[in-house]
Amino acid sequence: MDSPVLPTTDRGTHLSLLADEILEEIFLRLPTPEALACASAACATFRRVITDRPFLRRFRKLRPPPLLGLISDRGGAFHPAQAPHPSARLARALLDAADFTYSFVPKPKEGWLSPWHPRDVRDGRVLLDCRVPGRTFRSALAVCDPLSRRYVLLPPVPDDAITAQEGRPAELAPVLAPVGDHEDETSFRVICMAHYRTKVVAFVFSSVTRQWCIAASPSWSSLGTDRPHGLQNCSDSRGCRGMSSFDHVRGCFYSASPWMDKFLVLDTRRIEFSTISDHSGFHELLRRLPGQPLAEHGMHHRTRPGQTRSLPGFVVGREGSLELLSLVGDHSPNGSFRLVYTTQNNSESPKEWRLESVIPLPGQYDYFTVGAAAGFLFLGGTTESQQDCHETEWVDTWDIDYFSVEVRTSELKKICTMTKPCFNHERVHPYFGFPPSLSRPTI
């Protein structure tokens, strides 16, 4: 029997689809996002295939987006990765193409508001807020993409929903939830975690419904802990310790500041709170090492930038286990610093932290922790020579070097240098993304 002959138009479509599939398989084998960006600029056909969302989703699973720089809370400035960092050229291209002044995001119309300030950064998007003077818990929120200059203004969390719980919360911390593997990449969710006297409440905004809802409200006692003590009011845009310090690992947020020897955990897929123990025993052992006091809040010989927010550890993690990196060091002159690397296997019971390694950090720096994301721990540091100079004369600013430590390889890389006012507790957020030609999410 003769094979059926496709009409000319059908054959053309079939060959076109086959050619696209072959191109996709070729492009998936490119080693870096930069190489993919170069391929996309070669011709219109390549760009059409490469910018297709399903293809980009496949590529991201194989080639995680590169770290391009840091975004500071105050003013929201983007600080690109600087040479010799491998992402320096891409970071400069992003800085030239994007608007990190957020001038394209209009202000709400209810009275005078402060400038937009970043509160969280994820998937190339920035969560912004600004406040009505004199109304601590009345803030405007927006989600934007500085590259495409698209934005969404969020309605405020209903005031009656906030106060109906137990009056005003001690803390209200908004975060951007990550986009799930099977979710539409154009959608997003914002979660506001509210810390009350007897419970914690999660208010969730969905870009699909354009509404807020109360998704979880467990009591502190049901989580096996007491109400966190000693936390400041974290409603201002600069952030502070407490629920404003969260690291994201595989769909869950982990508090970077433990209380009662526990970390608070929020599963963003099910919107469920839980806690995990911080008991490892290794910190007590390391405290007894000569010249190695734990670099945490309240244990400093001299006051230096970031010390009042150097948290004891950050959960980062890979498949099958949680990983905790704790900064241990001596803040006295010429003191040394190390990272204590511990893991906890989710499949084991009881879950216990195991000591994997102690990673020495290069000398000449006084380090403090900044945060963790995407398998990296972020550190800031001031040089000893700068410290010595600042102790003999009054200066208004510090030059702070920022570093990333990749958990998988323990490799430390310098990202950039920022000049900041002395004793400034401004937070920074890592920005991961693709080159401008590839990353234009719709918001």
General description of the model:
The chain is α+β, with helices and mostly antiparallel strands and 443 residues long. It folds into 2 domains: 86-228 and 241-279 and 428-442; 283-295 and 305-426, no CATH class. Helix content is 18%, strand content 34%. The chain has 8 helices and 23 strands. A 4-stranded antiparallel sheet has the order 3-4-5-6, with no helix packed on it. A 4-stranded antiparallel sheet has the order 7-8-9-10, with no helix packed on it. The longest helix has 21 residues, at 8-28.
How would you summarize the topology of this molecule?
Blueprint: H1 8-28, H2 33-40, H3 44-50, H4 53-62, E1 67-72, E2 78-80, H5 88-97, E3 117-122, E4 125-131, E5 139-145, E6 150-154, H6 159-166, E7 171-177, E8 189-195, E9 200-206, E10 211-216, E11 246-249, E12 252-255, E13 262-267, E14 272-277, H7 282-287, E15 314-315, E16 321-329, E17 337-345, E18 354-360, E19 365-373, E20 376-383, H8 384-392, E21 397-406, E22 411-421, E23 428-432
Antiparallel strand pairs: 1-2, 1-23, 3-4, 4-5, 5-6, 7-8, 8-9, 9-10, 11-12, 12-13, 13-14, 15-16, 16-17, 17-18, 19-20, 20-21, 21-22
Distance between the termini: 54 Å
* Beta-strand segment tally: 23
Quaternary: single chain
**Radius of gyration, CA atoms, in whole angstroms:** 24 Å
Main β sheet profile:
4 strands, antiparallel
Q: What level of helicity do the residues show?
A: 10-25%
Query: What is the overall silhouette?
Result: globular
Total count of helical runs of at least 4 residues: 8
Low-confidence stretches: 230-242, 290-310
Overall structural domain count: 2
Mean pLDDT metric = 76
Q: Give the percentage of residues in beta strands.
A: 25-35%
SS-derived structural category: alpha+beta
How do the strands of the widest beta sheet line up side by side?
Answer: 3-4-5-6
